[in-house]
Amino acid sequence: MRITDIEIYPFDIPMRAPFRIATMIAHAAPNVLVCIRTDEGFSGWGEASPLHSIAGETQAICLTAAKEIRSLLLDRNPLEIASLVSDMDRFLPHNATIKSAFDMALHDVAAQAAGMPLYRLLGGAPRHIETDMTLGIGDLDETGERARGYVAQGYRTLKVKLGTTLEQDRARLRAVRAAVGPEVRVRIDANQGWDRATAARALNEFAEFDIEFCEQPLRAHDVAGLRALSRSAAIPVMADEALFTPSDALRLIQEEAAPYFNIKLSKSGGIHNALKIAAIAGAGGIRCMVGCMLESRLGLTAAAHFACAGEAVQFYDLDTFMEQAEDPVADGIAVEDGILSLPQTPGLGAAPTPEALRRLQRFT
Length: 364
What we know:
364 residues; alpha/beta; Enolase-like, domain 1; TIM Barrel; 2 domains; 8-stranded parallel β-sheet
């Protein structure tokens, strides 16, 4: 099989409301679509979701890099995924987000060629995937109402974005607990928003709200601080922005920095490297969550397929498409009462709708 063409599309998706975390605010998802076409009639789709404050990439950077990767992959065999990913990593060592779109599209082609859903190609099996629902940083008066609304829709786990001041973060958690009661699971995510002293106070004082774990309380480079928190805090810590590569996973385990990992395809460079991280985590006794940036149902469908590939992933944060103002994707994952179901058709099982594609600028 041979790659005959690669199409690249800027893929902007408006949000229902501004989405704010400690390090950024997004009014739309500035994503990038990639389509790999082959001489045997298969077309594989992938999506990159760059967030500059997390991955250091923008849509413009991804589009420029995508054109370079296109030249690297044309006329190659799309089934040689390990070799192609290795070449991309050597060519662009730091552009994980756009590489994840190409990796995703390659896996889509391979699973279509094999005639099976992607999770089957990865050696996986159907799993119970219950996603949380995220509350971004917003008006305190609306926080409790939004939390109550998500629970009424069937969600039993909420993730609350923190990382402002200790007082505001405490008030936000108090409002959530008052709205949903003690039965709903609550996770928190500071997105690198605290310093060491604030994080130490928060992760002990916020234990009264029965918090499952806290994602990335400190700056990504502060592995020593993460380790200290993991040893002393009342709330378990999850490494997120500190974890991009398999080498990062190995270092975090060696440093005993965190008992939990958050694996995102946009950070790992795609499914191939995400599987390596999951294997390292499993060997090190680390429980993982599969997370997301601001992907549509296309990118989140790929993440769900990955989650079914092994036992390391035990938590799920695949909710962003439900906060987008439009759904430009055909098929893909479906959600009911917070439970995600995967498509059973060959490949990824998701693609942009023809109507959405007609509105997009295309680079070939």
